[in-house]
Amino acid sequence: MQFLERERLASNKFLPGLDKALADIPLSELERPGSPGIEQFRQCGGPGLLVPERNSGAGASALDAVRVQRAIGARSPSLAVATTMHHFSMASLIVLSEISNGFEWMLMEGIATTSKLLASGFAEGRTDASILEPTMTAVATDTGLRISGVKKPCSLSRSMDMLTASVIVPRKDEPGEQLAVVLIPADSPGITITPFWGSFALAGAESDQITLEDVLVPYELVVRTEVPPGQRLDELQIAGFVWFELLMSASYLGAASALAERLLGKAGVPATDRMRLVGELEAAMAGLENVARQMPAAGRDQQLLADCLFVRYAVQDTIGRVVPRAVELLGGLGFMSSDDVAYLATAVNGLGFHPPARNKMADQLAGYLLGQPLAIA
After folding, report:
1. Which structural domain range is residue 122 located in?
2. Which of 22, 15, 199 is nearest to 112 (CA)?
3. How far apart are CA 184 and CA 354, in angstroms?
4. Which end of the chain is more exposed for a tag (fewer CB within 10 A), N or C?
5. Where residue 68 sits, what CATH number does that domain have?
6. Cα separation of 62 and 68, whole Å?
7. How many domains are there within the chain?
8. Is the peptide bond before 26 cis (omega within 30 degrees of 0)?
């Protein structure tokens, strides 16, 4: 069995042709603005990866998805990061369909059958904000919600078909407010996209600024939840966080694995050094897979979210140890003869910038281990 074979088999099963297509494109082309990787993902059925088969999707489990994301990350970190945001939005819809009696299944089926890409307008990227904390304001009208707000950075900003976001809306039949998820067509009047991402690293993820000014969203694209604003973590938020942390961690682990893969075939590097690095990566992947195997049975439990966060930070530390050593063992000639090694060594650092930051979560996780409810800082 070859290194990453299990992950590439999963990719070929659920997204046939994608891995080969990405392998045939130079990394420098996949990682630049306007990357062809996103369209390849769309053509291979990527948007429907998590959608259940009964809703015309690929029906990938959490374990399958973690493996697919690692395979994609090993070919194109930008594509893996960008598509994680699509999957996060999709997973939120799936959870909503399981805990409500609404029309979410129709939306999922439409996304899967037409390969539509969802950009995420949730709070990822805002300091001290929960991923599902609303970033947009909503005003109710007779014909729909008028949405305004800014999301920066927002992956898939140039290729999205729809933007998902959370808003607080008045309840229909009783006093009070509730959380709702809105799906906003990308061609809606009032949406503008402006440059934001200035780094060369992960430039292919299309992480620019999206601004909404009084954008009308019809009520048939508004998915109401039973979650009151300001409440502690609920099932939807827990499941969303678990999916996000799993897939984002697997994406960056894939990028680190791309360096290890280059090292495996390098003559003159002692087998003990190569196996030490691969062993650390495989141990980190085993941690992600352990969490993934517990979904969906425990996917809405605080215990699994806590375990997932511990694993995510462990993956982060593994990458921090493995990547510099892999670059050193690849040697100066490998570093100088191609930009790929330097690029991958830079791109893998992105995992530490995704929420929730470890220093923000330290007190909350310590409190949880002492019997307190888990909160996200």
Report:
1. 118-224
2. 15
3. 24
4. N
5. 1.10.540
6. 10
7. 3
8. no
Q: What are 68-117's pLDDT values in tens digits?
A: 999 999 999 999 999 999 999 999 899 888 877 677 888 899 999 999 99
Q: Which residue has the higher pLDDT, 346 or 338?
A: 346
State how beta strands 162-170 and 177-185 pair: antiparallel
CATH value at residue 362: 1.20.140.10
Question: 39: part of which helix (H) or strand (E)?
Answer: helix 37-43
Residues 6+ apart with CB under 8 A from 226: 99, 100, 178
Residue with tokens 């729809």: 162
Model pLDDT for residues 115-149, shown as the tens digit of each residue: 999 999 886 545 555 555 677 899 999 999 999 99
Instruction: Assess whether 122 and 205 both reside in one domain.
Output: yes
In a domain, 377, yes or no: no
pTM (global) more than 0.85:
yes
90: nearest Cα among 193, 164, 196? 164
Structure-token pair, residue 303: 């215990």
